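User:
Can I borrow your eye for a moment on a structure tokenisation matter? Would you put together a sequence-and-structure record for a protein of your own picking? Please set it down just below, with no commentary around it:
AI:
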Amino acid sequence: MLALAALLVAQQGDEAALRARVEAQPPAVRDFIARRANCNHWGGEEPYDAGRRREIERAVRDLGCLTLRGEEIFLRRYFAGRPEILALLTETEEQSGW
């Protein structure tokens, strides 16, 4: 039980450290990572009825999820000389919800 509690505390610390690193980035990078995390969240949601499907579609549209790949390419080119930003973009690819 103590090992599980220690693991959860460590994960929360890792999450807080990641968030702090993201917050320290230029606004375009910060906003992109947050949007992508929210798009990842909505992309994993189940459209179990018509209302839920509309909710998911609206969130995906409002977040601009369909343009993320192009925006990431642009950011990677723009910040090509900033390896810490490129690494953070890679590290947060699978982040869900923000």
Remarks:
- The radius of gyration is 16 Å.
- Confidence is low (pLDDT under 50) at residues 4-9.
- The CA atoms of residues 42 and 56 lie 6 Å apart.
